[in-house]
From TrEMBL:
It comes from the Archaea. Keywords: Amino-acid biosynthesis, Aromatic amino acid biosynthesis, Glycosyltransferase, Transferase, Tryptophan biosynthesis. Residues 108-351 form the Glycosyl transferase family domain. SUPFAM superfamilies: Nucleoside phosphorylase/phosphoribosyltransferase catalytic domain (SSF52418), Nucleoside phosphorylase/phosphoribosyltransferase N-terminal domain (SSF47648). The keyword Amino-acid biosynthesis applies. This is Anthranilate phosphoribosyltransferase. GO terms for cellular component: cytosol. Residues 29-79 form the Glycosyl transferase family 3 N-terminal domain.
Length: 361
């Protein structure tokens, strides 16, 4: 313990449990940035006893992390685990939940390709069957499409610059988080790692697009980015995603945007507004986007939509999700303008060409 204290500081996880976070969800205290930083440094260094680590993760889940704590975790992850590779293009960083989807099609590959074809570079990143759900994610759709995914960060950056759409593979760019796989799997529930890994931003993008279940969580994510000392993100767009993924939920959907100045935003420059997806051509129910084999059917849908062979609800959903990416980067003045760009990129064959280029990369 003396050696650990000299290396890390005064706050081993057991002490944090006893004195700060471990007394229960109503009486626990929040950690300071210094305490949260030290905790995550110890975790990435595989220093804590496994029982203590599990208890710490669960205590954080009960008490709910503050933006200050999450920002500290993001900073330590960035400093000690993430290998960034910055493309010349400044893409939209899409941070979908790494543990994937289990009911509905993954539309982010198709939407990202369409956005790229319209002139908005896009980056996505994921692992491979990440706990706790260990379901299909970006990697698995791209694998089905014949796109190389197990590549080094420098290749991912080249993919962005050469194609307009890039994939970063977690074991390659974020090995410290990948090394926690077994510990996370044994937890049986999500931990704060599931949150911070989506903010890894391996391309050093200045725009982040993410999803949330509730608006309060979206605002917490914005505050996390604002408080992070390592984040390069200057603008963010969050929307209510299907299964927590970055595929917009049909119906009435809340969007959080940052930074926005003026009367429509709060004192932290966060604005929120509601869109009715039916008004943008996505006049379907969530059940209409459900599939049985997530990766295989998502890949088939992607191919058909990009080729202009589908004009159904899936095609409408892809176009609207692409529009949100275009709008997030401010390559369109409105979501409607982005939608028009997206539909044109499909109609003129540009999106299909991007998919061909991805396969050839």
């Amino acid at each position: 313990m003396a050696q650990a204290t000299r290396e890390y500081g005064e706050w081993p996880l057991k002490r944090l449990m006893t004195e700060v976070v471990g007394s229960g969800h109503k009486s626990a205290d929040d950690m300071s940035r210094t305490q949260a930083r030290e905790a995550f440094r110890r975790i990435l260094g595989d220093e804590p006893d496994h029982t203590t680590l599990g208890a710490f993760w669960l205590a954080n889940r009960w008490k709910r992390n503050t933006p200050e704590e999450l920002a500290a975790y993001v900073d330590v992850m960035s400093e000690e685990s993430v290998e960034t590779a910055t493309p010349d293009a400044d893409p939209v960083d899409c941070g979908a939940n790494y543990d994937g989807k289990g009911r509905s099609a993954i539309l982010g590959v198709a939407a990202g390709v369409v956005a790229a074809a319209a002139g908005t570079p896009v980056v996505v990143h994921s692992g491979d069957r990440v706990p706790t759900q260990k379901q299909d994610a970006y990697k698995h759709v791209l694998d089905e499409l014949g796109v190389r995914t197990e590549i080094e960060p420098s290749e991912s950056a080249d993919m962005v610059d050469e194609v307009g759409f890039g994939f970063y593979y977690q074991p390659a760019f974020n090995p410290g988080i990948d090394a926690l796989f077994e510990r996370r799997d044994n937890m049986g529930v999500r931990t704060f790692v599931n949150t911070v890994e989506t903010l890894a931003n391996p391309a050093n993008a200045s725009v982040h697009l993410g999803s949330f279940y509730h608006l309060a969580f979206a605002k917490k994510m914005v505050r996390t980015l604002a408080r992070s000392e390592t984040s390069s993100v200057e603008r963010a767009l969050f929307f209510q995603g299907m299964e927590g993924y970055d595929d917009v939920r049909p119906g009435e959907t809340v969007v959080a945007e940052w930074p926005v100045t003026g009367e429509e935003s709060d004192d932290e420059d966060i604005a929120d507004f509601e869109i009715r997806t039916g008004e943008y051509g996505m006049d379907i129910e969530s059940e209409d986007l459900q599939v049985d084999d997530i990766a295989e059917e998502s890949a088939a849908i992607t191919e058909a939509v990009l080729a202009g062979e589908r004009e159904d609800g899936f095609a409408d959903a892809v176009a609207l999700n692409a529009a949100l990416r275009i709008y997030a980067r401010e390559d369109a003045n409105s979501i409607q303008d982005g939608l028009e760009q997206a539909r044109e990129a499909i109609a003129d064959g540009s999106a299909a060409e991007i998919l061909d280029d991805l396969r050839a990369f």
